[in-house]
Records
---
Amino acid sequence: MNQKERINLAQWVAGLAIKKGANEAATAITRSRSVQVDIREQRLDIIRESTESSLSLQIFRDNKFSTHSTNNLNRAQLEKFVSDAVDATAYLSPDPYRRLPDPSLYPTNLNIDLGLVDRGHSAITPQFRIEKAMETEQFVRQKNGAAQLLSASAGFSDNELQGVRYHTNGFTGSWESTSYGLSASLSVLDGTARPAGSAFARTRFLNRLPSAETIAENAVSDTLRQLGQKPIQSGKYTMILENRVAGNILGRIFGPMSARNIYQRNSFLLDKINTQIGSPLLTIVDDPLIPGGLASRLFDGEGIKAVRRDLVKNGVLNSYLVDSYFGLKLGITPNGGSTSNVLVGQGTRNEEEIIATQERAILVTSFSGGNASVTTGDFSFGISGQYIENGKIVQPVNEMNIAGNLLSLWQQLVETGNDPFPFSPSQIPTLVFSDVVFSGL
């Protein structure tokens, strides 16, 4: 089924729902194909290929709402599926805020090419996938050096996605994308400990993936720098968050930004629009229109036009993440209830340059468990990393903990790097925080 055929089917299903008694309807049809190849201990461990087509249907009937899904796209069987869906909706409780988004929120130009499709994807062969993963695993073994290797693995994956969306109040949209991933991991023996490290990259285009050798080198480096890990004395240290793990902290801000949590008064960002919630160095932009971006899109899951948003500007909260349902409840114009490509304001130095100027700091390279409260912002996380004195890495550390409050922590942001991690939808550079309490010995 091609995109035109999917649109025709989506229109037919939604139109049938109206005939059966719905006031409004929305239909989405998607097809995804993914392949995963894993090599472990120099042998093919997993080769998995899956292709799935699915249809989702939203019914709005007399202020009542329901959503339904099926993998059966046969029109004869879809007639009963739609009829049952409309009938079932009649038994639900009414909710006056359940409706399709206002058509004024839909995009007017859907002919923009965001560069999300690698046209050479269809030429990728099973042999290529296996060889790429095998090559990466071999490089891990070659670059491990003198450390006693316990296990090594590598993986190659690729995905293609097509989809369409149709609303009976005037929206028709489609999307298509490809992506590729390459990973490596290993564990080594260090006395009684077994440090494990990894590296991963995902891109839209095959030729933008790092080489197998680079991924292997990064995985080995991530592992070997953990040799001799131990906790150090508890106290206040400058905290440097490595760019590839900084999202573990930054991502905790988006749940409290959601209109759902704001409406339910379950957010530490309640009533904080136009309020300073962080250091003036904190700027967070959501940009869905980046060419080739891993989360780029012209519209969101409700068909609402995708636009660049300054969520936080110089520490000031500018916007919540507002979907159509809770936007109506709050009386706020919907702007999309989720993030896409997240960009964090950058400074002038990279991680290495930042480390060289630190008197006493801890570089956090991984998190192990913990949680953060959406309601209060209180957090506690286990961490591992590197202890720094006088601009030099002195020793690896682990079994330490950081705890505090996210609003206070973001006020302690004293520097952002110029080195965002390139293989994620979240383009976050190295982040530096002053006077963070670490619990260790």
Note: The first strand starts at residue 24 and ends at 40.
---
Amino acid sequence: MPKVKKLKNGLNVITIPTIGTKAITIMALFPVGSRFENAKLAGASHFVEHMMFKGTLKRPTYLEISKELDSVGAEYNAFTGKDSTGYYVKINEEKQELAYDFISDIVFNSTFDEKEMEKEKGVIVEELRMYDDNPIMAIDSLYEQTLFGMDHPLGRDIGGTAKTVKNLTRNELFEYYKKYYTPNNMVLVLAGAIDKKNKKKFLNYFENIKVKRGKNLQNFKEFKFAKSKKNLKDRVVVKTKKIDQAHVIMGFPGINYTDKKHYALSIMLNVLGGGMSSRLFVEVREKRGLAYMVRAGAGAYQDTGEVHVQAGLDPARLKEALVVIKSELERIANEPITKKELKDAKNNLIGHMTLALEDSSAQASWYAKKFWFGKGLKTPEQIIRELKKVKLEDVQKLAKQLFDFDKMKVAVIGNLNKQQILKMLK
């Protein structure tokens, strides 16, 4: 069972000791992401993440930051989401003090050198272009725009746009950083081979941070799906691009992060598109050879969520695939899944979770997000018990609730136009 402690400066620490490993992951997670940004600051959270590796008071240059960790074979990285930003180091247990020192230094002492910031603008713009040129990545962004709308932060790209990135000033970015990167707005997770003897000394790297830059006001704009029905043409967005495949996502309003129906949702998605024996994989790929990639998934936030089906295939066969996908969504909503499907889905999910959490970095990420967005720190064992409780009728009832085709939104990238897609969907 993980242990939670709050340091004197308000910083939360979760400890997850693991027997039989010589690695430890130190992860810092802040509950702030792109949904905290207004339109002018779009991309600020992601830009801050980049600047964490460009120089600190103790390590003035990016080379001093990277060489120190590279020299001991450590893994280190960061990630930005809609509602959180995280930083981690996975390192040999004998070198773990360096990880504590490093994480503390970059998240609280970064200098945001103006020259480095101007150079990094070019890097980020190229990153955005790379994603936009890759339709498998670009379809996610187009889908979020379609689902949430560009007037809401959830509908905007996490990285912002080339224009917003280039227009961000050093003062704007630094003020954004100071507002949210505070000890009382951070959880630190220690997972793996923790040095219990020196842990208190190592935590001084964080407890000695006395900066009080304000509190996390959770001032994101709450999202609610419109209750009024829109015409199909207003729920479909097509980006015409001369590529060989058509990439499509069909999505629906989902459930928020703490909804108890998440266990039924996991099972439903597993049955639909969770593996090579799932319904969509069998019907779309194996029986008809329509697509190489077809899958079902979901996203969840504090206030809302979504469920979707994604596929990439020959544009000439897209209509047939859409008919099959729609048929499978209707079937799972109107007919109970079988007892064997329920049993197999539970075993599949439990097996995947068990394997994933063998890794200390996966454990760190799991508990960090549970801390900020869940209702209590549920252990994998508790999750398994809840999954086992799900009944056939729970899955069907949820599917019927979610797969409302009057609320369906569709995003497509390919050598097709909107009128062609609308004809396929009717």
Note: The chain has two domains: 3-207, 232-425.
---
Amino acid sequence: MNTIPRRKFLRDLGISAATLPFIGGLSSLSANQAAPLRKKRLVIMFSPNGTVQEKFWPDAVSKDFQFKSILEPLAPFRDKTLLLKGVYNKIQGDGDRHMRGMSCLLTATELAPGNIQGGSDSPAGWASGISIDQEIKNYLQGRAETQTRFGSLEFGVAVPKRADPWTRMSYAGANKPVAPIDDPSQMLGKLYGQMRDKEGLVSVLDTVQQDLKRISTKLSSEDRALLDEHMNLVREMESEIARQGQQKDMGHPMPEIDPTIELVNDNTPQISRMQIDLLVNSFANDMARVATLQYMRSVGEARMNWLGVQEGHHTLSHEPDNNADAQAKLEKINTWFAGEFAYLAKRLADTPEPGGAGGSMLDNTLLVWTNELGKGNSHTLDDIPMVMIGGGGDFTMGRAIQFDKVPHNRLWMTIARSMGHDLKSFGNVALSDGGALDLVG
């Protein structure tokens, strides 16, 4: 078997380092011509402040379930959807429920002692363990056949420029939060590089055109189409970022006078789609097989003007159930998040699996959409929203399941095992009792 390292093989073709991000995932240029292993991928998407449960959970928890209004955007993927009700975050200890809901969401372990005061509960610090996305990333990066350039990518949309347990869900280890990148231009630079001259940004494509032209004859028709898609996306992203830069800041400023008010730019929907496009493109080019997509933050006061909602999200989530206007606005907000989740699923479904394996990328990707709370006004960590789409977990999809208050530790163990990582426990060991969940039966 040919065991030439992939990057050395590509460099031996006489191409520059700047070209590698465009062709690293093309099977035509593989140094090893053996049948490729299946590429299984995971994306965990987060949205904050709980949901409107009556508009979220189906009435019938079975194979015959019907989507309620919030999840209606997922209708095209009903047969590929799995709803899990009865998943609880049972982590106790220091920190308020928003803090534990956010920083214990993917770590499934307690917050370390600290001096960050939240709500009326005891102060706390960062999470005291690794998050499941980073755990799975480390496992995949530790095996030669599943190594990728980045291992994992952390995308953000409207995440404030601050660092505390309310803004971080990914952890490389105890007291090691991983910050998401919420600027598409920064993410584009990370993935493909950015060149500058005295005039400003220069398209990275201009520096690699000759290399790509020279190797195009070595590509299969499928790989040529995939390469064209990569190049078109990068060109479009560069143009859009340049246009936005001339009009307004693509960041999400937070006023210093009143840090409880977060202004989310009206171009947030556009930034969301750009981030999702970059995420799918990075997967198609096999730059990573694990990603997180974080919208805003726990306790976030995003003001979603594009939905006709001027009130802060967190404030609305605290309104009582009998406030019909607030509930309608929360329903609208959460339906928008569902629409972004559906767009991610569609982009993957519309992208053929690279390498000639057949099917779409969604067939080999597991998408998980979750939240730090079950319900905002009660701060409950019960019935955390858990929605899955795709075939990457090899679970039996097209149904809704009711569990009896299972700790979310066991769900993360189940997902890790579906990725080949045979975890015996995760996070709080005591809450891992019972092992992985049966999502195949």
Note: The chain has two domains: 1-31+184-248, 42-182+251-432.
